[in-house]
């Protein structure tokens, strides 16, 4: 315990510390209240918010990149199984394309075709192998006839058949959009210069194997042709477009001959 004499000795030091603290607080309050200090304080807050936003964006990009890689890893496993069971050209092409995208800089729009194919693959597999255990077929009304499929499975099968062709058309147009994306990405150094070359060759193969790709190319070609040949456009624009069509047609049709595959959708699931 402090005695009266020790308290009297310590009291001046306590008074000095209190005065210093009060002076420091008043100095800090006056600093924050001055115009120059308030602008500095607002700048510090702005820099802090920017740094926090950058850290959050970096964490989001890392998570997005991992999800992107995981998605293509799943596509590689899926198409490896498909190629093992049925060694078809279109399956090998999509397997190699998935491998290329998996090793390249992420391009999120390139996931749309694989996600669409995966949706129909999963629905077809679930309908054929899993749901019949939960929705068994109804016994036949008369002897000698096969059992009737459950109404829910009939609805699911009808939905797959009704939406298959529209989904494949969306895939065909998306693949053309991806080509535009990788071309501009190469010009702006957003992806490798090899990406548009490899993907253009992939689309060349798809054109000769998929009726959906053929129709999408012809539709886009007709649209551009109508825009270029409008009255009032400079003749040089028409000349460039004609030369571009000639070069593309000569390159795309130099080796391959058009085929009519059994499954027009290419890598899509077979109808059942």
Automatic annotation (TrEMBL):
Recorded protein name is Uncharacterized protein
Q: Write out the coiled-coil annotation as residue ranges.
A: none
InterPro entries from the xrefs?
Answer: PER33/POM33_regulator, TMEM33/Pom33
Q: Which terms in the GO cellular component ontology are assigned? A: endoplasmic reticulum; membrane
Organism encoding this protein: Sanghuangporus baumii
Keyword terms of this UniProt record: Membrane, Transmembrane, Transmembrane helix
| Cell compartment(s), UniProt | Membrane
Main localization, broad class:
membrane
Pfam families tied to this protein: TMEM33_Pom33
Share an example GO biological-process annotation for this protein: endoplasmic reticulum tubular network organization
Residue ranges spanning the membrane: these are: 67-87, 107-126, 178-202
Membrane-protein topology: Multi-pass membrane protein
- Please state which protein family the record places this protein in: Belongs to the PER33/POM33 family.
